[in-house]
């Protein structure tokens, strides 16, 4: 397509007269010729969306190895294999890394399908006028300049500038977020393209929206990627995935560990060389240090914890598409939520009825002969399907549902008093009229429509069965009630009637719709979900700020937000429209973004801008939504949350998590699970790193003192067996009771926040010190002496004593970590308060780990494999007592910390 045509398809046709639009599109009301349509199809291409680039399974698999910690582990595996000639360590490390990658691929196997879902939404056929005749063609064969006919039930096949509109209503909720179908008119709009948002372009029909009422005719002004839906597809393709806090923290942790390992290994290497040891010996010792320092199983353990978190969340109707999303939820500061279908039901519902000078809630009883109830059901084109579902305009179905809820069976009533004539709804007069034959031979003229227009045609008012003349006081009372209901964001319709002797000869508005009796008003709204207000309250208590973003009108958005508790009633300073947002530069918006909690009449571009403005403030942003218009913002957010029931495939495809029940409160449940997951990952990291620090210090100090202690096989066994099971079990610890009373940790926090780093340091030092003490005691006070082993030579006796010391140090280091696992159940709270044995998985993990540790010493044959000796009761007593000492030591430190105000 030429550059000229690209410009042509992006013009603001809604501000131009029909004749000008047809001229620019080089078309006419008779449509294009078949030959011209074929030429344009070759030039413009099919009316379809571009496919996004797909990644193969192989590419996705290798992308899992980009993680910094994974690179460190791979490097350690290679070094270990090359220099130590012991491939067992390398094989185990590689196995852990590959399993981690497989987990990631499985979770993301169904990753980005947003563009494909957009394509599937396309209408299969369209009625077009070509060569002066109406024919049906596939929607992907439409070209700019085609004249398209629209009828109720159609899906709009491309972006159209309307040339004709007869009572035309189009439902655009998936694109604009507005819950009520838009009344369309073939008119020229005044203003600039920036001033007129998508929801206000009443002379346009947009691709993939639904015609709910009337008929229309329009000229195609945008196809494929040049439609509004196409622009969204382009935004999805261009939008970069945000890096989750989990990935950032793991990368940061990997870098910190690498630096620490290199520094310690270099110091130990130099000191060892100065003490006369060979460089080969010191290189292998440094590798042992690396094995001790690197938590080989951490990536896999984190993946397992996240996977277990996804399973729990799935049972609570939160389906996680990408593993890191579990943890990201826990750090959420801001939840930007679409209104329609997310905070509300996306289902128009009657909320109030005004009759006999009284406003009644929808739940109050209504008499069967109430005229307002009859009129709202009679002047209605809703169809009732065999399964009882209602088909038609959402406003009209709401009125019929209200009737059914009050035992008014419209099917039976209309059968008894059938419709014999009508004047369809017209957007100019804003009224609809039906005429019904009554049992006494007279006829009921029932009129429904805009209250202000209806009142102009009323001369009487129905009050308690009487019909007195309507005076100015009564008229003002009705208008005041109308205004009051409208300020509550209710959509208000009026009902009026008259009884005539015969069907009017001419069904003309001026003749039929006059001298009416006012019967009442009905107020409708897309109501908030019952559980949403409580969810908003819990979110605020958890320090999370809910933000409403909607394509609906300002008054409606403000009213719903106030009812939900997002803003205080009357706090209109917290509300901003898309048009007002357009007037702010990014810099100016960044300065005031914290002032606003409600955004009304916004476009998809606005939603992305809002999300990014909060992200620039350092906030972790979650975005919920169900429509096509939400997809770019869902992808741009730190975590996108789609709706499983009402959500489009596009929004679900762009999301990190999908709510199976469309329940906003499920998000809060998921946030709690996310916080628990992060807390448990912190516990796992605290456990692993304090244990590894104990190992590093033991090996480092022993080397500095020229002590020969802890072989690489000991460290690997402790790291991959004794450590792993308790670490995984800590990942399924129940949430601490106050998990939702803390403010979100935000982006600035990391795995070492909240006292974890200081705990790792002092607990690691304690473990190393206790291990070295046991080793030194075993050397200084050996169980085997020359007195009780007189037949052994001095060298054999030394080997036996050293073997005992090595075994006791190995057993102490392993056992001390198992006892320490109980300490890690809470950073500051006493383990006796948190609960020693309430986590069954943890109890089994400790038992299995202990048996695996003991097996290396107690089972014959394992001794030689692990270079250990059998210990007697005295030696086991020293090992057990010293190992258990970690619990009272940490309890004392926690007690002091709590007294200092930490919690």
Automatic annotation (TrEMBL):
EC number: 7.2.2.10
Domain of life: Bacteria
Keywords of this entry: ATP-binding, Calcium, Calcium transport, Cell membrane, Ion transport, Magnesium, Membrane, Metal-binding, Nucleotide-binding, Phosphoprotein, Translocase, Transmembrane, Transmembrane helix, Transport
Keyword DNA damage: no
Gene3D superfamilies: Calcium-transporting ATPase, cytoplasmic domain N, Calcium-transporting ATPase, cytoplasmic transduction domain A, Calcium-transporting ATPase, transmembrane domain, HAD superfamily/HAD-like
TM region(s), chain numbering: 68-85, 91-109, 256-274, 286-308, 685-707, 713-732, 752-775, 805-822, 842-862, 874-893
Primary location recorded for the protein, binned into one broad class: membrane
Cited CDD domains: P-type_ATPase_Ca_prok
Topology relative to the membrane: Multi-pass membrane protein
Subcellular location: Cell membrane
Domain Cation-transporting P-type ATPase N-terminal per the UniProt entry, residue ranges: 12-85
Pfam family, any one: E1-E2_ATPase
GO molecular function: ATP binding; ATP hydrolysis activity; metal ion binding; P-type calcium transporter activity
Single GO biological process annotation from the record: export from cell
Catalytic activity: Ca(2+)(in) + ATP + H2O = Ca(2+)(out) + ADP + phosphate + H(+)
One cellular component term from this protein's GO annotations in UniProt: plasma membrane
NCBIfam families: ATPase_P-type
Protein family: Belongs to the cation transport ATPase (P-type) (TC 3.A.3) family. Type IIA subfamily.
UniProt-recorded name of the protein: P-type Ca(2+) transporter
């Amino acid at each position: 397509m030429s550059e000229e045509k690209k410009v042509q398809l992006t013009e603001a046709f809604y501000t131009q007269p029909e004749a000008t639009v047809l001229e620019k599109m080089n078309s006419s009301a008779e449509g294009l010729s078949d030959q011209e349509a074929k030429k344009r199809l070759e030039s413009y291409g099919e009316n379809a969306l571009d496919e996004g680039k797909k990644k193969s399974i192989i590419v996705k698999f290798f992308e899992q190895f980009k993680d910094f910690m994974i690179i460190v582990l791979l490097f350690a595996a290679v070094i270990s294999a090359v220099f130590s000639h012991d491939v067992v360590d390398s094989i185990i490390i590689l196995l852990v890394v590959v399993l981690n990658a497989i987990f990631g691929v499985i979770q993301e196997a169904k990753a980005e399908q947003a563009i494909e879902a957009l394509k599937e939404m396309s209408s299969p056929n369209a009625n077009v006028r070509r060569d002066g005749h109406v024919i049906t063609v596939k929607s992907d064969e439409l070209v700019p300049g085609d004249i398209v006919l629209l009828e109720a039930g159609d899906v709009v096949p491309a972006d159209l500038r309307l040339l004709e509109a007869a009572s035309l209503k189009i439902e655009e909720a998936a694109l604009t977020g507005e819950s009520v179908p838009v009344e369309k008119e073939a008119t020229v709009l005044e203003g600039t393209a920036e001033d007129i948002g998508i929801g206000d372009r009443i002379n346009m029909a947009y691709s993939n929206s639904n015609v709910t009422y009337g008929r229309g005719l329009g000229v195609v002004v945008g196809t494929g990627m040049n439609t509004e839906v196409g622009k969204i597809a382009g935004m999805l393709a261009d939008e970069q995935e945000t890096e989750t806090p989990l990935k950032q923290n793991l990368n940061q942790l990997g870098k910190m560990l690498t630096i620490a390992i290199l520094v310690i290994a270099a110091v130990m290497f130099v000191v060892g060389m100065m003490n006369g040891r060979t460089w080969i010996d010191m290189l292998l010792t440094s590798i042992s240090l690396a094995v001790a320092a690197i938590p080989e199983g951490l990536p896999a353990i984190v993946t397992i914890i996240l996977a277990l978190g996804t399973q729990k969340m799935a049972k609570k109707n939160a389906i996680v598409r990408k593993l890191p999303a579990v943890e990201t939820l826990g750090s959420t500061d801001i939840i930007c939520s679409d209104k329609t279908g997310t905070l509300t039901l996306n289902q128009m519902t009657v909320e109030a009825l005004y009759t006999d000078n009284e406003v009644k809630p929808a739940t109050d009883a209504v008499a069967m002969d109430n005229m307002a109830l009859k009129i709202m059901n009679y002047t209605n084109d809703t169809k009732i399907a065999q399964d009882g579902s209602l088909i038609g305009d959402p406003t009209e179905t709401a009125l019929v549902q209200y009737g059914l809820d009050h035992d008014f069976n419209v099917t039976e009533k209309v059968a008894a008093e059938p419709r014999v004539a009508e004047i369809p709804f017209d957007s100019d007069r804003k009224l609809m009229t039906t005429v019904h034959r009554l049992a006494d031979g007279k006829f009921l003229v029932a009129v429904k429509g805009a209250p202000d227009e209806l009142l102009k045609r009323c001369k009487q008012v129905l009050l308690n069965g009487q019909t007195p003349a309507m005076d100015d006081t009564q008229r003002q009372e009705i208008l005041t009630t109308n205004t009051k209901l409208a300020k509550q964001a209710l959509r208000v319709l009026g009902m009026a009637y008259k009884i005539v002797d015969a069907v009017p000869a001419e069904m003309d508005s001026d003749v039929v719709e006059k001298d009416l009796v006012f019967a009442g008003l009905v107020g409708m709204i897309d109501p908030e979900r019952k559980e949403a207000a409580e969810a908003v309250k819990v979110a605020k208590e958890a320090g999370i700020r809910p933000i409403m973003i909607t394509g609906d009108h300002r008054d409606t958005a403000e009213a719903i937000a106030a009812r939900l508790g997002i803003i205080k009633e009357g706090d209109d300073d917290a509300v901003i429209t898309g048009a007002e947002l357009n007037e702010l530069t990014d810099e100016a918006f960044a300065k005031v973004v914290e002032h606003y909690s409600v955004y009304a009449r916004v476009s998809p571009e606005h939603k992305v801008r809002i999300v990014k403005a909060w992200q620039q403030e350092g906030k972790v942003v979650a975005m919920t939504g169900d429509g096509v218009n939400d997809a770019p913002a869902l992808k741009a957010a730190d975590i996108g949350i789609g709706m499983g029931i009402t959500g489009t495939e596009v929004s679900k495809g762009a999301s990190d998590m999908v709510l199976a029940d469309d329940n906003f409160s499920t998000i809060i449940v998921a946030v709690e699970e996310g916080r628990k997951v992060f807390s448990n990952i912190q516990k796992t990291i605290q456990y692993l790193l304090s244990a590894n620090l104990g190992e590093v210090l033991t090996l480092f100090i022993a080397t500095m003192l020229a002590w020969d202690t802890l072989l690489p096989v000991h460290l690997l066994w402790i790291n991959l067996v004794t450590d792993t099971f308790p670490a995984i079990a800590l990942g399924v610890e129940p949430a601490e009771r106050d998990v939702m009373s803390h403010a979100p940790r935000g982006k600035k926090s990391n795995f070492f926040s909240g006292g974890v780093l200081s705990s790792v340091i002092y607990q690691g030092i304690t473990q190393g010190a206790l291990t070295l003490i046991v080793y030194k005691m075993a050397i200084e006070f050996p169980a085997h002496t020359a007195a009780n082993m007189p037949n052994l030579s001095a060298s054999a006796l030394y080997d036996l004593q050293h073997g005992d010391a090595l075994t006791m140090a190995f057993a102490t280091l392993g056992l001390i970590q198992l006892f320490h696992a109980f300490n890690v159940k809470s950073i500051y709270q006493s383990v006796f308060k948190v609960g020693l044995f309430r986590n069954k998985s943890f109890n089994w993990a400790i038992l299995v780990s202990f048996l695996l540790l003991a097996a290396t010493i107690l089972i014959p044959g394992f001794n030689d494999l692990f270079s250990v000796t059998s210990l007697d009761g005295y030696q086991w007593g020293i090992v057990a007592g010293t190992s258990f000492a970690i619990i009272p030591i940490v309890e004392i430190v926690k007690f002091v910390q709590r007294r200092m105000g930490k919690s």
